[in-house]
Design a protein that fits this description.
Number of strands: 0
Order of helices and strands: HHHHHH
Helix content: 40-55%
Shape: globular
Oligomer: single chain
Mean pLDDT: 92
Strand content: under 5%
Low-confidence stretches: none
Length: 143
């Protein structure tokens, strides 16, 4: 939300919550006007008609909600702020073990069943090499 506030040049009041569920409850109850939430958490409420999806913060439209435009399409060129999860190992893990784990994880993410499961939940698998993940993480920290 802070990245969007800066990109849009608008003032928003930050309301801190102890997690998404209480924030979603207050959004649906009208105590707050908008929020950024993961597709996984918000999509069921959008499908029920309890929330209205205004945009997704990824560069590409969500496979789970292709009718929702991106912020990029709405004029916030280059905006890309997505939640992500990474699988990591201790720093001293032997490179051969890291490579073996990475190959197995990426192989699983490439299967139709796993991809369809994640996409149905509103999550987009992002298979990467350890080097790509390192570069991605550094870029995200810089943002």
């Amino acid at each position: 939300m802070e990245m969007f506030r800066n990109a849009a040049g608008i003032n928003l009041t930050h309301v801190p919550y102890k997690g998404g569920p209480p924030a979603l409850t207050d959004l649906m109850g009208g105590q707050v006007n908008l929020m950024f939430e993961t597709t996984v958490a918000a999509l069921p409420f959008v499908k029920q008609g309890r929330l209205r999806a205004l945009a997704v913060s990824s560069i590409k439209r969500s496979t789970a909600a292709p009718e929702v435009p991106t912020l990029n399409e709405l004029g916030y060129t280059g905006f890309n702020g997505v939640p992500w999860v990474a699988i990591v190992a201790p720093a001293n893990t032997p490179p051969a073990i890291v490579a073996k784990l990475n190959a197995a994880i990426n192989k699983a993410l490439a299967t139709k069943e796993v991809r369809e499961y994640f996409i149905a939940q509103g999550a987009e698998p992002m298979p990467m090499t350890p080097e790509e993940l390192g570069a991605f993480t550094k870029a995200e920290i810089a943002k």
